[in-house]
Amino acid sequence: MNKYICIHGHFYQPPRENPWLNEVELQESAHPFHDWNERITAECYARNSASRIQNGKGQIVDIMNNYARMSFNFGPTLLEWMEKKAPDIYQSILDADKESQKRFSGHGSAIGQVYNHMIMPLANARDQHTQVVWGIYDFRKRFGRDPEGMWLGETAANTDTLEVLAEHGIKFTILSPYQAKRYRKIDEKEWHNATGAKIDPKRPYRCTLPSGRTIALFFYDAPVSQAIAFEGLLESGEKFAHRLTTTFDEHSKDPQLMHIATDGETYGHHHRFGEMALSYALHHIEQEELAKITIYGEYLELYPPKYEAEIIENTSWSCMHGVERWRSDCGCHTGGHDDWNQAWRAPVREGFDWVRDQLEPLYEQEMRQLGADPWQTRNNYIQVIMDRDEEHVREFIHSQTNRELSKGEQIKFLKLLEMQYHAMLMYTSCGWFFDEVTGIETMQDILYATRALQLAKDLSGEDYETKFVEFLRRAKSNNKEYGDASKAYYKIVQPTQLDLLRVGAHYAVSSLFADSPEELPLYSYKATSEYYEMLEAGRQRLAIGKAFIRSTITWEEVDVSFGVLHIGDHQLFGGVRKFVSPDAFATLHHELSSAFDKGNITEVIMLLDKHFESHNYSFWHLFRDDQKKILDQVLEQTMRSLEHDFQQVYDNNYPLMAAIKNVDMNLPRPLQITVDYIVTSRLLEALMAERVDVDTVLKLLKEVDRMGVKLDEEAVNYAATIHVEEAMYYLEENPDDTEHMLYLTELLTVINGSSLQPEYWQSQNIAFKMRQTTYEINRKKQDEKNEKADAWCKQFEELYKSLNLKI
Hints:
807 residues; alpha/beta; six-stranded parallel beta sheet; six-stranded mixed beta sheet; 50% helix
């Protein structure tokens, strides 16, 4: 067969971590999920690890891991997040690469990516090399092999970029056909014009570089890739397969590679059920032998390039003006605001370049004084980024320096490298891709730049902020609320900055709401309580203590003393300062506790001002996730009181409300809100029980129909989803519990007969695995006339069917 198909998915999210905490904080815009990484993982990355193939009746007949049958790259910073927050999905991606090696002649589906999606042609040579070195090391550490290919951020390329890839052993990269300049058959003299995508994407091309090195280029099929992303091609798996298989030249006897490249998020996030269209297409093409599914590494080994090509310098796949989208108001934007402009891109780029150029001499000079090779050490720092175990970091410091460093020098060494790390992250491409400078993507990059400058100030004592803000002032916002990026800087970025005292303040405030205040997780910091006392009087609480705060990233540390007063709800007053002396702490403790014991809250507040002066903190200085946690605790009592009031209104007026509904009249709005709230609450309570009373759920669902209840569908569906999942996990561990299986089947029957639409994805995965294991064992016994096995199989088949699965 001379027809081959390769589907490439570029799976990527920008790094979203708070630069001071090394954690992704709550993002309200991703509701009901914690953040956008979590949401897109649920909608896309997880789905592709266990994608459904359905029959004509919509029943699931098979589940497959799409990653094992396609070419893909994952952003290293995204995989770092997934390893911590979605380990099962992360492992399924690694497993898929191993499975694909068996399928594709020893070649793996995964390829590498430049580390944090920097636009490589706009980077200096040092940063280009570091991006590739970090990308390769990260890939090798995760997948256990070297990457054959590497994805360039936005496929942005020039000759220098290709030289860097080739120098580091990368065999190929994937580009848009619009990036091709000219081509010819190898050893022929005449070149053919390829501009305007006039190049055959069905073959690989060799690119010979000025150094004499070579790299293979694959120019993807643009029309089909475009149709997938923007023209609804994923609405039907059969339609998708047909489009892929009808692009071949039927008269050619030469091998042909039909290959496409899109954002991986297309399959499930941008297009719901897109992952199912993908799995159906791959399955259908293989079943019908319409073409051979392959990946780039395998195809390159089978059919080395017979043609060579050159690229147009400084081009990408998402900017028709080359790479201007990441440095000027070129006209490329995401749309929806015709009166907006992106003139802000230039000053933001200039500001970041200024940051980079200011920090380089500082970094180089200080690192040489510590006895290290500055730029080789930065390239090697990926070893620490991926493993921050303290002993490992000590070994790294020792390996990179030519002498033993003192404790203070070790802190300086780590600060210098963190400064460079964040100076790399600030160039993440998403900062320029979208329409508005105050959007979360650009502000995230500004956060990274700010962290780099803060570290530079710690190291040099110089003020970099004033000059940096001047660049931001030139970056005019389309949002009248801000006017320019400097105002967003003061409103969003500056309050986010942390030092060790503010970390101590967070520890002190959050300790009031913790079960074990002596041991609190503090993200990338560690707080060790050396003294802690809490005094209580009714709703009022006063915590006084001493703690040791240490950064697990830079190892800087401080002893702090603190006092924090909670007078109810979210009203908090507190102070933190460096520990002065035992006598000073004894005075602080005596004065605060005496005033509190007297019930003189005004005096306590005045004493906090006296002892801590400008280092005063409140609820608003807490980290975002902890603000929500405390607000939820404060609201809990309020909500219980409200629910009691709603319940009384519901009970006292139910006969009247039922009568109104019986004559097809609308309930007055206050009464309808009451009914909606109470029925939703009862249904949630029923579904969150350890074992659901199926009859109660059935009655409540009938009440929904009878009273025209507008349920909080998101909350109820989520509760049903979680209960069914937990029940399935139990069944997986206890497959012989047929009573539990019957209970679950009955509950599913009730839910499936209602308007509820819970998500059965994970439950289906568990059932599918049981189908391949426990069910098969019992089915063989069933063939041997084993009555117990026969009964088990029949019961399991009912459950399987209830989950929309077909045996």
